[in-house]
């Protein structure tokens, strides 16, 4: 039987490679994990798989209303939802650009807002972990993706300071190249170039990113906020 006294963690983008690994890591740490995605698919360790498009602010409000009513206030929020198109800058159209920004940045903004509003009203602490990217630090051939992840890093530092007085920590991980279906869309030649530049000589595994997320989400990092943790095999 599930432990209904266990802390609740919400993971967006839970159906993806990193999302499934984060779900498993947090469940292993004793959380009831609510996996959120546009499809009802999740790691088997998830307590529940919830369907919502977190790029739509109205659906975010409805999602967190459902969560509060059925599961209580979450202790942890992991903003992992993301899209990547591997598209050249000159080929971008306004609709695709808006989708990248809405999913990669807007979802993190509005999910954190809904999460924090409820915690502040209840006088509860919490922990937010955003999944950024090395592309947000060094740029990306996919300019919209790089811009969105750079904004996630700025959002992390801003909210880490803004919410600290309420006991809500906000941090991020910045993965390098990770062996996921999303990374598989990177053109083969570019993948080989990246691999050759990684000091550890390989792409990361989703579980390695999840371990960093779980640490930032938990009590062992209680004095860490507004911080971005690089998990990239030494690639800069």
UniProtKB/TrEMBL annotation:
Keywords: Oxidoreductase. It is an enzyme of class 1 (oxidoreductase). The keyword Protein transport does not apply. Its EC number is 1.1.1.100. InterPro entries: NAD(P)-bd_dom_sf (IPR036291), Sc_DH/Rdtase_CS (IPR020904), SDR_fam (IPR002347). GO terms for molecular function: 3-oxoacyl-[acyl-carrier-protein] reductase (NADPH) activity. Signal peptide: none annotated. It comes from the Bacteria. Belongs to the short-chain dehydrogenases/reductases (SDR) family. This is 3-oxoacyl-[acyl-carrier protein] reductase. It comes from Micromonospora purpureochromogenes.
């Amino acid at each position: 039987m599930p432990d209904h006294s266990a802390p609740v963690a919400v993971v967006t983008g839970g159906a993806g490679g990193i999302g499934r690994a984060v779900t498993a890591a947090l469940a292993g740490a004793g959380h009831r994990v609510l996996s959120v995605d546009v499809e009802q698919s999740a790691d088997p360790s998830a307590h529940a798989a919830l369907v919502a498009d977190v790029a739509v602010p109205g659906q975010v409000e409805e999602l967190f209303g459902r969560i509060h009513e059925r599961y209580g206030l979450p202790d942890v929020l992991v903003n992992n939802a993301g899209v990547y198109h591997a598209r050249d800058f000159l080929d971008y159209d306004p609709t695709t650009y808006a989708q990248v920004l809405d999913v990669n940045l807007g979802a993190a903004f509005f999910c954190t807002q809904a999460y924090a509003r409820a915690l502040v009203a209840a006088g509860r602490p919490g922990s937010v972990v955003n999944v950024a990217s090395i592309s947000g630090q060094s740029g990306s051939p996919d300019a919209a993706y790089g811009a969105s992840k750079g904004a996630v890093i700025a959002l992390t530092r801003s909210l880490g300071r803004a919410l600290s007085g309420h006991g809500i920590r906000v941090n991020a991980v910045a993965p390098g190249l990770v062996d996921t279906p999303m990374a598989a869309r990177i053109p083969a030649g570019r993948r080989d170039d990246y691999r050759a530049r990684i000091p550890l000589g390989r792409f990361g595994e989703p579980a390695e990113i999840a371990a960093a997320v779980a640490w930032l989400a938990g009590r062992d990092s209680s004095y860490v906020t507004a911080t971005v943790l690089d998990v990239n095999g030494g690639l800069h």
